[in-house]
Amino acid sequence: MINSRRVGLTLTALLTALMPAVIVAGAGPAQAAGSCVQQGDDRGCIAPVDGLHQVSACDNEADGHGVYVEVDWTDAAQNETVGDGNGSAAGCGTVRYLDAPYRYRVCESVTGPDYCSSWVNYYG
Q: How far apart (Å, rounded) are the C-alpha atoms in residues 104 and 68?
């Protein structure tokens, strides 16, 4: 089943191709600034990118514990997670969504309950 919230490279390429038409048609509304939350040195962020909402999970601790961002929509039957698949190596795990999430938090996978930041509302 296709998840309507997760946007792949195909849609991103399509939007990029259509951008000149949007720019010629007129200026759009200003984009909201992104926001980040931390758990220890690990970070989770959401920011507007090319009309989408980019979620990033960044593992900044070389401790062997995975990091993920849990994303929640007010109308969603399920949350989604975005992980940093390369551990504490350079770069973050990112996914772009069409719909703006309601809230998010960053978590570190540990034995027992995961360490998570507080939920943060996103006003994208």
A: 10
Q: How far apart are the C-alpha atoms of 52 and 40, rounded to whole Å? A: 28
What global pTM score does this model have?
Answer: 0.72
Report how far residue 124's alpha carbon sits from residue 74's, in angstroms, rounded to the nearest whole number.
14
* Residue % of the chain over a pLDDT of 90: 60
The closest of 95, 94, 102, 92 to 124, measured between CA atoms, is 102
The vertex-5 CA angle with 101 and 117, nearest 5°, equals 35
- Domain range list for the chain: 34-121
Its CATH class, for the domain covering 34-121, is mainly beta
d(CA 68, CA 106): 6
| Helix spans in 1-124 (H) | 9-25
> Residue 46 and residue 36: Cα distance in Å, rounded?
6
